[in-house]
Amino acid sequence: MFGPDQPVELQLIEIPQRMKALEAVVMELYDCAFPLMRSVSMTDDLDVGFQAANWVVLCGCTPRKDKMLRKDLLGVNGKVFAPQGKAIMDHAASDVRTLVVGNPCNTNCLIAMSNAKDVPADRWFAMTRLDENRAKAQLALKAGVHSTDVTNLAVWGNHSITAFPDFLNAKIAGKPVIDVITDRAWLEGDFLKTVRHRGAAMIKVRGLSAAQSAAHAAVETIRSIVNPTLADDWHSVALPADGSYGIEKGIICSFPTRSDGSKVEIVQGLPINDFARAKIDATIKELVDERAIVKDQIPV
Ligand code: LMR
To answer: Domains in the chain, start-ordered, CATH in brackets?
Structure first.
């Protein structure tokens, strides 16, 4: 995740009732004999687990069940992220960066960030890379190409059924997607629907939410943040909205982003037509509504 020469010390946090399961994870981590894993510790104490952490991945949460929306978890999971944010502020390293994976990840990230006022806003990210990867896979299948041929795929907004995977600015082998896949009804219909409902489709088939693809997306998100982005490409990550594209500040919104290896910037100036604008406005509205639901957990 951090490159071929970067050793990693893992500090794993679990709730007390699940420490036995964590013990098994640690046994497997040892048994993988990972060349870059220098140490691994486990704790149920946030203050200990976040001590001196440079990168935090917040994936602990109650997963949703069949027929639930991610935002249905706000009540139960939201409460987890306020103390986590506070413990990060109090104990993590001064350069700490945090990726929120636990759902609903955008608003959970907002809660954690809002409870960690001393940690600058540009250190907080939520994961929409899974939606990007899902969109790339669907476009590649439709066009009969490999997923690596699909580039410039930005997901806008929330990691939810309103996410907008922006096929209008995406490319296949350097050509606009809409020139390669001319079936516009599919792009505006089944494609969007498949990507947006993929998490629920997985829960239906597997009985549990996506695991491997989500873990892979988390690794790829951090890799894209700590490495320079390839020329002319971009990746999706949710971060604090700064007013770009007329999107309201004060929400954690997914944008097309580029990194120079340390700083992540929102790609500016992409064309947004009426169709895209309506989709983006709808997903922003959902984020604003989610923020209103958790306002008690966001200190003024
Ligand atoms: C996913 O998209 O697979 C995850 O966010 C899990 C879920 O609840 O769908």
So the answer is: 8-126 (3.40.50.720), 129-293 (3.90.110.10)
Q: Mapping DSSP to helix (H, G, I), strand (E, B) and coil, where does residue 12 land?
A: strand
Name which of 24, 26, 42 is nearest 34 in CA terms: 26
Question: How far does residue 169's CA lie from ligand 1's centre (Å)?
Answer: 25
Nearest CA to ligand 1 atom 5: 199
Beta pairing, strands 97-100 & 175-176: unpaired
Q: Whose CA is nearest to atom 9 of ligand 1?
A: 199
Distance, CA 56 to ligand 1 centroid (Å)? Answer: 20
Question: Is the pLDDT reported for residue 16 higher than 90?
Answer: yes
Cα separation, 105 vs 78, in Å, equals 9
189-235 pLDDT, tens digit each: 999 999 999 999 999 999 999 999 999 999 999 999 999 999 999 99
Per-residue pLDDT band at 61 (split at 50, 70, 90): confident
Is the C-beta atom of 270 inside 6 A of ligand 1? no
Q: Radius of gyration of the chain from Cα atoms? A: 19
Query: Atom of ligand 1 at shortest distance to CA of 103?
Result: 5
